[in-house]
Amino acid sequence: MVEYSPNELLICAIADMLGGLRHVAVGVASPIPGAAALLARSRSGGTLRVSIVGSEDNNFFTDGGRELFDCAAQGRIDAFFLGGGQIDGAANINLVGLVAPGGNYPRTSLRWPGSFGSAYLYFLVPRVILFREEHSRRSLVPRVDFISAPGSSDDNLYRPGGPQALVTGRCIFAFDKGRRRFRLQSLHPGHTADEIRANTGFDYDEPAVAPATAAPDPESLALIRGRVGQEIAEIYPQFARRLADVDEYRT
Amino acid sequence: MAYVDLDTLIARIPDGCRLALPPDYSGCAMAAVRRLIGRGAHDLHLVGVPTLGFQGDMLIGAGCASTIECAAVTIGEYGPAPRFVAAAKAGALRIIDGTCPAIHAGLQAAEKGIPFMPLRGIIGSDLATYRDDWKIADNAFGTNDPILLVKAITPDVALFHAALADRHGNVWIGVRRELMTMAHAAKATLVTVEEIHDGDLLADDRWAAGTIPALYVTALAEARNGAWPIGLRGCYPADAAHLAEYAALAQTEDGFRQYVEKFIHGREVAAQ
Q1: What is the CATH number of domain A6-240?
Q2: Is there a contact between B126 and A148 if contact means CB atoms under 8 Å apart?
């Protein structure tokens, strides 16, 4: 049995969703999605383009901060990653903060950085993968306090993009666009369906038996521990050091 | 062209003005920002293009900003921006929450001299609910196709740091073209530069393509290591140890005051 870390499992699981794409973009504060995109690029033999906000080595834009968004609006970006302090069962995401009941925004009891480009890219990038490592009733809620970006829209709204999946530290949910709900897709090794239900604040569908998330293959692990680790260290040096931390490994 | 010293430069940033600033990955005029804090600037309306980083957190912590307009305030891997989080919790700051492309588009409308820019997405976000400078309209060229209109953003002043400018006042910004958009959109543009280039940046197309013409530049000041402790692309990396020290100190009001005392009111500390 090959040893791997929880980070390596997540990186491989996300990279598996990026096969055959042309261009994947990665925003700020996204070390695991960034590493997954770089792994997918290595697997693709270089045909996948990866652009990472804040990177000098992996950012080919020459028209300033707006180009990423213009590119997305034209359909030139196939996949992007979003997170959120809160994510709800309709895939609405909140990056603004906690708003007390009664809703007196802009007052927040806990303030997060802000919505970044989410209110745009969620609508325009065909495959948006939600990533939130903390899987708890605090992060996965029945209804977000503030909608930075909605999971779905009225039929007459121009919206080629939207959520495809939600990856957490415990499992992967697929998003059913028609039903506007998540469905449990796979459980990470060591986690159970009951545990997911107990730790998820929103309702979702699930199969009779949920399969296990695929364990990383040796080739992918070698890439993560080599080239991908070096590449992601340019933007996330602290993360890259932890990535190689064998104390976190388990079989 | 008007090369002045740093204090004269920041004297052109009046209290109460709408001041556009770049994000940490672009060109931040940190030496000038320290002078602004030292001056006791107040009531600034900061526009992050499209986000605010360390300079935003410092200006908020020092009480220089009363309003911020941006897509986020972030200091990246160093954790939540501490003075921003504290000010938001205290309700001491007017926060105009936006999203990155809407800020770029608002500036683009200003640089074109038009009142608004249409933009896809965003409709259905709570952001739109709270913005009276965003409106939903029908696509004039389509049917049943709602689209968001973002009001032009015309900053009073844009302030940033660049690697190079020539004696004519042409400023080379390379691929960091949000700085170009800021200069086009703002009523006044103030620039600090790492180095003054002897020659004409517009004379050679290889430089000219990444150069803001002096037409848009109000005044400049030479400031070596002017982006420190933030990095400057192609010149020097961020001073990670210093930024970590800031992030740690700024966790508390007292710690932030110590930082300001030491690095702003004390000796102007140059990197190296």
Answers
A1: 3.40.1080.10
A2: yes
Q: Which strand (E) or helix (H) includes residue A204?
A: none
pLDDT in tens, B91-125: 989 999 999 999 999 999 999 999 999 999 999 99
Q: Compute the average pLDDT of residues A83-100.
A: 96
Helix (H) or strand (E) run with residue A197 in it: helix A193-199
Count residue pairs from A and B with Cβ separation < 8 A: 147
Q: Which of A107, A118, A152, A232 is best to mutate for the B interface (most B CBs within 10 A)?
A: A118
- What pLDDT does A237 receive? 83
> Can you tell me the distance from the alpha carbon of A213 to that of A208, in angstroms, rounded to the nearest whole number?
16
Which of A31, A76, A77 shows the shortest CA–CA distance to A234?
A: A31
Query: Taking the domains of chain B in order of start, what are their residue ranges?
Result: 6-84+154-265, 100-151
Fold of the CATH domain B6-84+154-265? Glutaconate Coenzyme A-transferase (3.40.1080)
Q: Measured over all CA atoms, what is the biggest interatomic distance in chain A, rounded to whole angstroms?
A: 53
- Sequence spans of domains, chain A: 6-240
CB B56 within 8 A of CB B68: yes
Buried b (16+ CB within 10 A) or exposed e, A218-240: eebbebbeeebbebbbebbeebb
